[in-house]
């Protein structure tokens, strides 16, 4: 495949792979070494763009970018950074739908390395297990903090929750703006993208409708805490 074909795949945001494509040696080097190396490479990029790295304002940028990539934006690449999601026995035998909505999504498009910002809305029907509510937010945060494709983010969150909660009955909606669509290319400032993945009882459209109605009801509230 030549560079033009590869560019088209990225520009059309085609999901090619369900799993984040990682090299076999992805985590052989410690983070500190990765930061040093990325810093060096980013210096080259800036120099190539014609920037003067002796300028006070620019001289620290390669280090800042490298640290930001490794420690913040892409921390979710590391399996050892996945939040521990301990599931508890569902003692109250709650067997109705539970919704966690407006979970912030701060991600990065893997095709352009530009931000994807939006919200995730998640519902599940407990079987024998429940998890702490904040754990759902943390899982979304974790899978968001890696170079992503929105469809894959949706699927990775779904599959992790299905496993953690020991039930197929989970639904995940992600609505997000892609800066690669709003700031370059078509430069559409208003459009956003919605993706959905689900399993178990949510294969039944009446259950999905129930979830969507609850989201609407939630939106009608104005919480101020
Ligand atoms: Zn993109």
Q: Any overview of this molecule?
A:
By secondary structure, the chain is α+β, with helices and mostly antiparallel strands. It folds into two domains: 28-77, Orthogonal Bundle (GTP Cyclohydrolase I, Chain A, domain 1); 86-220, GTP Cyclohydrolase I, domain 2 (2-Layer Sandwich). Helix content is 39%, strand content 20%. It has seven helices and seven strands. The strands form two sheets. A five-stranded mixed beta sheet has the order 5-2-3-6-7. Strands 1-4 form a two-stranded antiparallel ribbon. Helix 2 packs across helix 3 and helix 4 (133-144) runs antiparallel to helix 5 (150-165). It is globular and about 65 Å long. The relative contact order is 0.13. Zinc ion binds at residues 13, 109, 111-112, 114, 178, 180.
Overview in brief:
With 225 residues, the protein is of the alpha+beta class. The chain is built from seven helices and seven strands.
Set out the fold topology.
Layout: H1 3-11, H2 31-48, H3 61-73, E1 87-89, E2 98-109, E3 115-124, E4 129-131, H4 133-144, E5 147-148, H5 150-165, E6 170-178, H6 179-182, E7 193-198, H7 205-220
Parallel strand pairs: 2-5
Antiparallel strand pairs: 1-4, 2-3, 3-6, 6-7
This protein binds zinc ion.
């Amino acid at each position: 495949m030549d560079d033009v074909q590869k560019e088209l795949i990225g520009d059309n945001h085609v999901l090619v792979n369900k799993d984040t494509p990682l090299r076999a040696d992805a985590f052989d080097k410690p983070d500190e070494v990765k930061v040093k190396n990325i810093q060096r490479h980013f210096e080259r990029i800036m120099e190539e763009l014609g920037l003067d790295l002796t300028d006070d304002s620019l001289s620290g940028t390669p280090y800042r970018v490298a640290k930001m990539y490794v420690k913040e934006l892409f921390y979710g690449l590391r399996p050892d950074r996945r939040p521990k999601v301990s599931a508890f026995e569902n003692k109250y035998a709650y067997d109705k739908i539970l919704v966690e909505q407006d979970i912030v999504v701060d991600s990065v498009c893997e095709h352009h390395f530009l931000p994807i910002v939006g919200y995730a809305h998640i519902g599940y029907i407990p079987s024998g297990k429940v998890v702490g509510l904040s754990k759902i937010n943390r899982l979304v945060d974790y899978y968001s903090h890696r170079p992503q494709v929105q469809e894959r983010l949706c699927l990775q969150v779904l599959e992790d929750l299905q496993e953690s909660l020991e039930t197929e009955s989970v639904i995940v909606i992600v609505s997000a703006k892609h800066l690669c669509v709003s700031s370059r290319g078509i430069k559409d400032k208003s459009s956003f993208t919605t993706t959905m993945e689900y399993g178990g009882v949510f294969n039944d459209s009446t259950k999905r409708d129930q979830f969507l109605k609850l989201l609407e009801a939630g939106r009608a509230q104005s919480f101020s805490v």
